[in-house]
Amino acid sequence: MTQYPYIPNSNEAVRKEMLDFIGAKSVEEIYSFIPDEVRMKRPLDLPKAFTSEMDLKRHMDGILAKDSTCDENISFLGAGCYNHYVPAVCDEINGRSEFLTAYSGDTYADHGKLQTFFEFTSMMGELLDMDVVSFPTYDGGQAASTAIMMSRRINGRSTALVPAAMNPSLLSQLKCYCEGMNLVGVASCPNGQLDLEDLKSKLTDDVACVFIQNPAFLGFFEEQGEEIGKLCHSVGAEYIVYADPSILGIVQPPADYGADIACGEIQPLGIHMSYGGGLGGYLATRQEEKYVMNYPHHLYNIFKNSKGQFGYARALPERTSYYVREKAIEYLGTCVGLWAVTAATYLAVMGPDGMRELGENILYKSNYAQKKLSALPGVKLPYSASHSFMEFVLNFDAAGKTVAEINKALLAKGIFGGYDLSGQMPEQGQSMLVCVTEKTELSDIDALVDALKNIL
Length: 456
What we know:
Elements: H1 12-22, H2 27-30, H3 53-64, E1 74-75, H4 88-94, H5 97-100, H6 111-128, E2 132-133, H7 140-155, E3 159-163, H8 168-177, E4 182-186, H9 196-202, E5 207-214, H10 225-234, E6 238-243, E7 261-265, E8 281-285, H11 289-292, E9 299-304, E10 310-315, H12 321-324, H13 337-374, E11 391-395, H14 403-412, E12 415-416, E13 419-420, E14 431-435, H15 442-455
Parallel strand pairs: 1-12, 3-4, 3-5, 5-6, 6-7
Antiparallel strand pairs: 2-8, 7-8, 9-10, 11-14, 13-14
């Protein structure tokens, strides 16, 4: 039998020792309880194994070399995962073995980790102006889903009002996760802002919550946040705002315009883009029992013992599936603990001034890009009447080319064009969602403008 240096216990002598210990003659005997008709009678159709680590590394490096990344290309892609700058200290801290190899920790050990988790929730609470922030969820989509399910548990209602033009991928997650909830879309005005008249017509006594994204998926700020909150509360519903944390150094946090629950994605906070892996969601509320007892995730607190020593621990653990299993309000996982460490490091390094400078930098570059790109023949900014942050829509209907054709031509010039909206949001026509971050140089924007001049 093949022995693999990177797979434990594949040595035949070790396998025999384990089989002898449990009194089995073969591995097949262990699986004998599985009915014969459902068992596979052939080996898995897998490539020949590499028994040498050196050969395996060479093989994997060859695969990775085929990738085209944001390091060697100019990127204007966003739509939920963003090419922000990651300070070196973030990778230095989250690569330490005490964080990397034991990402969760418990109350009886890893006290330094519990303090780090507490610091994450504390700094996020300060950024969001909220009292309670939980351990991260799997991603922003789960945070949004949990927020909606929290509203149902709080008021017993089963309708959630969401923007009709929200992120299609996020909406897909909500439909999958929020079992028993009726998700109803609210129309937008021509300038992209939520249509308040349509919202009023759909606010009934069965509405559990009103959910908005701010900035909206199409990039602009929802400037009616306070009015939406008042309308929501007029029928006793919960107001949920999905907010990008990278904007919160320059704009009001959701709590300041009436949000009961704030949620979103923490990937912008020092986490590399990683094929969907570098994601984590945040969830925040006021410190009220109806919210606190409906968090399915870990909460962390600081306490002082009889000797005057401070410590950190999980708070109210009986809410979670870790303690009550199938009786829990929802299930949770701890796989994103490492991103809590990373985000805490990022926030500590940036501080309030750094977050303000980040937002100002992005806003300036985004405005520059919109001004330059909108001057191109055949290019329009359909939502120019609203104010955008780091993303905005470019429409090419008048140019006579599809976004797919344009992006293919841009890629040949070493540029990742914006996210193609024409597939998931056909009502937008031939439009792309362009993203500009602090890593985007003005020269990158000029390069995009010049490339589009040639292509169009």
